[in-house]
Amino acid sequence: MLLSSLFSSENRSATDTGAITALCKAAGDPLRMQILKLLQQNAYGVLEMCQVFDIRQPAMSHHLKILANAGLVATRREGTTIFYRRNEMHPDTDLQALQHSLFHTIDAAALDPNLRNRLAEINGTRAAASVAFFNQNAARFEENQDLIASWSDYGDSVESFLLNNAASTQSALEIGPGYGQFLSRLSVIFDRVTALDNSEEMLQQCRNRSAVHGLANVNFMLGDTDSAIGNGVKADFISLNMVLHHNPTPAEIIADCAQLMNKNGTLLITELCAHNQEWVKESCGDLWLGFEPESLTQWCSAVNLAEGNSQYLTQRNGFRIQLRQFNLDTN
């Protein structure tokens, strides 16, 4: 039905039908279809995908080139590494409906268990590297933070954003609270606050500083969002403050947040916009060089989080920060 409607348009040209053929041919290969499934919620480099699919780099590069030429995947260079992601918005507007239908069908299919296990190993390696960095550099957190954006530079904006966008004030969850700068404000506004961190050293630093400020209604939890779900944590407000660019699977964290939210809950994401400052990976433990605003919108929309207010801040060193509000859509 969809293909026939596209072909029946009075204005379709030979070039247009050729583009449709290229798109269908690109996706009509079992391996390339699995690649599109793999790239559903994350970006990976060629070598990582070679490891997942157990094939040689020239073969993987060939398949990725076909997908890219058909407009199904996009690339982003970070230093010497090129990351591939799905292109959710086809450059040919006439093909967007067909592409959307294709991705929807692919996403409903299951990823091969062997591929899923290898992918988990890669994501686990990324996550372990991030945790190790923060455990080793907990005492230097503020120093590292100052290299990009200090809480003192944007904290007032975050707190003002919270006051204008929090619908309920019973419970809050901050994921990756750092030294607890935002917890001081959350503990005043909300009845119960949970601070969640997967770095034991960072959580201890946060616990110590919170004790100094007498934050009696804050519960400290060691673990990740998956363990928080397992422990039955629920919150009216969730904060992801400069967390996603340290996480190997940012889309999965957002999906977990949707599960952790109460009805009519609010998610506030404070995050770097996409940049090209490669040095932050070594100096600050960043896994990603920020994110395009459209990526956050896409990941949230996929788990029924509706976009609310947004604010963008430019730092003195050129980094840009995006403050994004998303609400759980229960309709």
Fold blueprint:
Layout: H1 2-7, H2 14-27, H3 30-38, E1 44-45, H4 46-53, H5 57-69, E2 73-78, E3 81-86, H6 96-108, H7 113-136, H8 141-148, H9 151-165, E4 171-175, H10 181-189, E5 192-197, H11 200-212, E6 218-222, H12 225-230, E7 235-241, H13 250-260, E8 261-272, H14 280-284, H15 293-301, E9 305-314, E10 320-328
Parallel strand pairs: 4-5, 4-7, 5-6, 7-8
Antiparallel strand pairs: 1-3, 2-3, 8-10, 9-10
- Order of strands across the main sheet: 6-5-4-7-8-10-9
What is the number of helical segments per DSSP (H or I, 4+ residues)? 15
Helix content: 40-55%
Say which CATH homologous superfamily of the largest domain is assigned.
Answer: Vaccinia Virus protein VP39
Poorly predicted regions are: 1-15
Q: Structural class, judged by helices and strands?
A: alpha/beta
Q: What would your notes on this structure say?
A:
The chain has 331 residues and is α/β, with parallel strands linked by helices. It has 2 domains: 110 residues, Arc Repressor Mutant, subunit A (Orthogonal Bundle), CATH 1.10.10.10; 189 residues, 3-Layer(aba) Sandwich (Rossmann fold). The chain is 49% helix and 21% strand. The strands form 2 sheets. The chain has a 7-stranded mixed β-sheet, sandwiched between helices. α2 packs antiparallel against α5 and α4 crosses α7. The protein is globular.
